[in-house]
Each structure stands twice: as C-alpha cells, then as structure tokens.
UniProtKB/TrEMBL annotation:
Residues 332-355 are annotated as: Disordered. It comes from the Bacteria. GO terms for molecular function: DNA-binding transcription factor activity; transcription cis-regulatory region binding. Keywords: DNA-binding, Transcription, Transcription regulation. It comes from Crystallibacter crystallopoietes. Residues 7-65 form the HTH lacI-type domain. This is Transcriptional regulator, LacI family. It holds the Pfam family Peripla_BP_3. The keyword Hydrolase does not apply. PROSITE patterns: HTH_LACI_1 (PS00356), HTH_LACI_2 (PS50932).
Length: 355
C-alpha cells in the first residue's frame, strides 16, 4: 500500500482489484468512447476511493489533460462589498460554461496557485503592480493562460485589461469637499506605509492641492481593509477637539463605517458631517442615507465576459483594453444630492493600485 496519509490511485486499484487504467477512467468521470466499465466495477472503485480517503490531484490531472476546467478569481478582502460582488458574479456565470470557480485572497495565493497550473484562467480583481506580480502576469501569458487584469496602468500583452480610471471622479469629490470644508478626515484601504503609484489616497491628495487645499496628515487613517479598524478610526477622529466636518474614504465599506460612527456620536448626516466613499457598491446605494460615492457604471460582468472570450479562443493575441471610467455620484451623505444618483448601477471592479 502507499502512504497511510495520502492514498494514491495505485492504492485504490489494489483495493478495488482493478487496473490503474480502470480507476483513472472511473474517477475522471469520463463516459462514452470504446471503453466500457460495468456499473458494479464503477461502484467498487468509488467505494474503494471513499474508504481510503483518496482525493484526486486536480492540478496534476489538469496538466495531463491540458486543462483544469477551473477559473480563479483573485480578490483582496471578502469583507469588501466590491470584492464579494465580483466573486459572486463569477460564481454565478462561469459554472454554466463548465468552469469551477476558485476564490483566492491575496498576492501570494494567486501567484503560487496559477504558476503551479491550478486553473485555466484568472480574473485578477485587484493589482498592486509590483515587479513580482507583473512578472507573474507576463509568465502566465506566455504559457497561454487566460487572464483579465483590473489595472490603472498595465497595457495588454497577451491578456485583457479592465482599465479603471478613478482620477476624474476622485478629483470631483476633492473639489466638492475642498470647497466646503477645512478639516477633511480620510480613511484609506492601504497600510500606513507609502502606497504604490496612483493610489486613491494620492489622487485625492493631489486633487485637493490643485484646488489650493492641503490635506492634514493628522486626519488620515489606514483601515487595512478591516471594518472594525475603520469604525474605531472614525470614532477617534470624530472625538477630537476639532473633529473633521467631512470624510473621504477609499472604499465604500469604510465610508459606511464612518456613517455608523457619526450616528453613534449623534451627528446629523449630511448636515453636520458629509461623507464620500469610493466603489459605487450596492451596499452603499441601499444604506440609509444612501452613500455619496465615486465609482463606475455596472462593470463586474465585463471581467467575466472578457475571460470567457479568451478561454474560448475568441480574443485577440495581444489582448484588449476596456476603459472603465468612474464618476462622482451625489446621494444622501452629502448636501448635494443629484437626481441622477445611479439607481440600479453597481460597480464591482477593483484595484489595489487605486486604493
């Protein structure tokens, strides 16, 4: 027998009293063709595999077959309504086309999984665009792995790019808040360390400066993607002797945490505190009051459609770049509330490079 801890296909064959080929055929789920396996034999193989606790090595099997029928969706944080919606959209659409969906969190997880042949394609729902990440994307493209990358800066090179452009919407948010408030609190999704180029925080800071307003660094906090941290940070800032009279956050989840903290402090929104988030998430639209936010029109489906076309061989060799412009949407957490507030729209495409 093989290892007691990891039974092999040979162990299953010996226990069932059949050949390796028979076990491989049964466990692969194949049918038809010239091979005929009786039902009693199939049952014997399946029972032996169950008793031994045999689990197929899908990656190795995929390499032998030339495909895994699996697609990976890489997101940053399951607590984010944005990331969750992207994962749910992929999981709703892709199985109907014969693909299993694997949700991966973080940089190391996706690189190691994809480089080991874990999936036929990947949607990278956020992009830090480090050297390691870019090198991995290019390596996978050379291998013919289907990829859709959400990025503010990358150009197609054998993969497709959803080109997010948050700058215009964030500039509009900065112009609005900067013209009305002297003390603006900021809670951003990144860490306290300097972020990559073009982050949402940096875009907001630069847009304020263009309007003659300097962002007070003492009013800036990092959430690390945690709603608890965001809530506590908002309470801390709102408890200052001179608290912010407005907040900008780089994700809707953090903005909703600010709204909750303000309500807990007894503040009236938007009369005593204005709040603008980033994402245009469904959660923000259905909150009370509805969240003013910077974000795109519905776009999560674009990532899935692009990937399916590439998996089917219908995409060009170089790849496509699809622009996803973002705009400011004034709703219930700002004094300005436009009639066109985007009811029914839900942007879901994200990138850490813009966080």
């Amino acid at each position: 027998m093989g290892s007691l801890f990891k039974p092999t296909i040979r162990d299953v064959a010996e226990k069932a009293g059949v050949s390796l080929a028979t076990v491989s055929y049964v466990l692969s789920g194949r049918s038809g063709g010239s091979t005929r396996i009786s039902e009693p034999t199939k049952e014997r193989v399946l029972e032996a595999a169950k008793e031994l606790g045999y689990v197929a090595n899908s990656a190795a099997r995929g390499m032998r077959r030339g495909r895994t029928d699996t697609v990976a969706v890489v997101i940053e944080n399951m607590e984010s309504p944005w990331d969750r919606a992207l994962a749910e959209t992929a999981n709703r659409i892709l199985p109907a086309h014969g693909y299993r969906v694997v949700i991966l969190l973080g940089q190391e997880a996706w690189r190691n999984f994809m480089l080991s042949g874990g999936a036929d394609g990947v949607i990278l729902g956020f992009s830090t665009e480090t050297e390691d990440e870019t090198r991995t994307i290019l390596d996978l493209a050379k291998r013919g792995v289907a990829q859709v990358i959400v990025s503010q800066f990358l150009e197609p090179q054998g993969f497709d790019v959803l080109s997010v452009d948050a700058a215009g919407g964030i500039a509009e948010a900065a112009e609005y808040l900067g013209g009305r408030h002297e003390r603006i609190g900021v809670i951003h999704r990144g860490t306290s360390a300097p972020g990559p180029r073009g982050t949402r925080l940096e875009l907001f800071r630069a847009a304020l400066a263009r309007n003659g307003v300097q962002l007070d660094g003492s009013l800036v906090r990092a959430s690390g993607g945690s709603w608890r941290t965001a809530f506590q940070s908002a309470l801390e800032l709102l408890s200052l002797p001179e608290p912010p009279t407005a907040f900008f956050t780089t994700a809707d989840l953090e903005a909703l945490c600010v709204s909750g903290a303000a309500t807990w402090k007894g503040l009236e929104i938007p009369d005593q505190l204005e709040i603008i988030g980033v994402e245009n998430s469904q959660l923000g639209k259905t909150s009370d009051p509805a969240l003013s936010t910077v974000g795109p029109d519905p776009s999560e489906h674009l990532a899935v459609d692009l990937l399916l076309a590439r998996l089917k061989g219908e995409a060009g060799e170089q790849g496509r770049k699809v622009p996803v412009p973002w705009k400011m949407r004034f709703r219930g957490t700002t004094q300005r509330q436009d009639a066109e507030s985007g009811n029914g729209d839900n942007g879901v495409v994200s990138t850490t490079a813009a966080t």
